[in-house]
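Database export, one record per block. Field names are fixed; values are copied verbatim from the stored entry.
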Amino acid sequence: MLTLATIRKNTDAVREAIAKKRVQLDLDALLALDTEISSLKTEQQGLQTEKNTLSRQFRDTPKEGHAALREASNALGARIDAITPLLADAEARLKAMLLWVPQPPADDVPVGPDDSGNVVQRQVGAPRAFAFALRDHVQILEAQGWAEFERVTKVSGSRNFSLKGDAVRLELALHQLAWDRLEGDGFTLITVPDLVREEALLGTGHFPAGREDVYHIAEDDLFLAGTAEVVLTSLHAGEILDHTQLPILYAGTSPCFRREAGSFGRDVRGLLRVHQFNKTEQYVICEEDVATSEAWHLRLLGHAEALLQALDLPYQVLAVCTGDMGAGKYRMHDLETWVPSLSKYRETHSCSSLHTWQATRANLRYRDAEGKVRFCHTLNNTAIATPRLLVPFLENHQNADGTVSIPPALRPYLGGRAVIGKPVA
């Protein structure tokens, strides 16, 4: 969310952001509502001042004049009371509109209507040429007895799964590799609850636009979070941090839940687009400084790239365009990892800088060295998300006999094994 002061000062930039990000918002109506609220407040304050003046006159006015003063005061009070609900209604409508105001993107962000406008900046690693008939990840898992799909569907419905045996250990090993690397760079490993209140989702910007993709537990009015970012943004909400506490670096690990409401007709085989997954999220709270947050953005992106390189997985880096980056993003990069069975790259990581957009919504502030209270900058990026990453991992590292090779960086987390699985026909 942008403050009204920011919107008034940068109206043209905000209007341009609304157009570039394809947000359905009438900025002129928002500004008119802001003006209406200012007028109502001015009128109410003037009436209250006038009423206070009449009250002071009672002491110096003869008793025979009190009735007239009381009548005039009551009339002013009635007009004040009549304005109060009008003002409350206008303020509620303005607050709702402010939640839709997008963050102006960086000047060098590509402009485009949707993911077709994303720009590949670089590709790292060459897709493997297989000398045998490759299996997709479902065939690998089922041949090794490492997953349950059909049985779990009977219990939990479609787009759910169960991992078994070495696949469970492999999933945990991927996260352990990320934990060790992030802790080595000063990040604090932290678990977060799956359940959150609505204000936490509003604070991150997942509401109101993404409401249809979140599971709601109506009896308790709680929601299942789709990322640790939701809790981590709210963890310090309402506090005023000291600048010496920044940056705050979290490696948030948690189960995550998404309804995938908009994925009808898209590829959903096996571990693609599941409803529940596990993720280790990189999360940064830093000072309100463009250069500082830009440096952190590159650092978060670098962590994700280093993990993919350690896992010997080919990937590409995309600069996400204005129409695909989301309302709150100042800059966004996606990492897409090569999936042999699909002959294409698929998103496995998403790195975002949000400047003060989230912090304003969540009231996340700090006091700078001069004593001024400012809103923080927030950033996030996936470190490891599973089972999403298991898809390219299993397919890229499969062997002709159905076993799966383990890159050296991951072997310490799997008992030193260079290969997992048994030969299959």
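Remark 1: The chain has a mean pLDDT of 95.
Remark 2: The chain has two domains: 26-98, 115-420.
End of record.
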